[in-house]
Sequence to fold (307 residues):
Amino acid sequence: MKITIVGAGNVGATAAQIIVDRALANDVVLLDIVEGVPQGKALDIYQSAAIQYSDTKIYGANTYELSANSDIAVITAGLPRKPGMSRDDLLNVNAEIVATATREIVKYSPNAIVIVVSNPLDAMTYVSFVNSHFPRNRVIGMSGVLDTARFKAFICMELNVSIENINAMVLGGHGDSMVPLVRYTTVGGIPLSDLLPKNRVEALIERTRNGGAEIVKYLKTGSAYYAPAASVVQMIDAIVNNRKRIMPISVYLQGEYGYSDICLGVPVKIGAHGMEEIVPIKLTEDEKTALDISANDVKGMLKVING
Fold:
């Protein structure tokens, strides 16, 4: 197994560190356009492997040749919003970065499964899918995996129970209009709505929707990376070990849930071939309305990218 990570920033480097620690691949390639950064971080991580007793080898590079024949390629590259830059400007800049990365991955690793992490995530997953010309099972985005982890963490904090007791699922776009499904959220098999009053559940949902912004507010000069990196690795683990796990993943839809020509977070079975099946679940009228709002937000971003 060979894994390439495009982008040696905090998310990419942390994901590489976890992959090496857990020996999920024989080889990891950390790519970045900034000379010396991927090489230095890769060397540092490789030295830590000696302490973790991991035989995974990791290499840093500024070009894609070293990534040839990767089984999995993770795209974390992208720019944060800068002063004077509109959201539309940021969309188009990151779309070009993701499109270029995707084309290079396809050139050197035509059989890879691509996992997109760059923001805005669902729009960037769409950009990667369109530019890859891969079947849709091989281009997936890490959306609801992270959002669900945040929802579970906040429930755990609220109820003071083991995280192992909590099952949850967050659908829709990775943004303010994400859709935490309370009806499918249980704690030790008990519905969350039986354990907490409605106002507390609503507060947890709101905190989940603002989970990334809350961290940015604390850090002031950065954004979350530990949980995003762990979310990527959870997806990688499901692929590497063919776990057939059901996760909320951003995938290209062709009529499922009533949407087409869009990437959106829905329940997906993940295994050795990437997306193995889109899992249909019944939504209430309110849940479907909320998912429609989220889908429309993503469509609005795609309209900006497509001009």
In short: The chain has two domains: 2-141, 144-305. Residues 2 and 70 are 5 Å apart (CA to CA). The chain has ten helices and 14 strands. Residues 87-108 form the longest helix (22 residues).
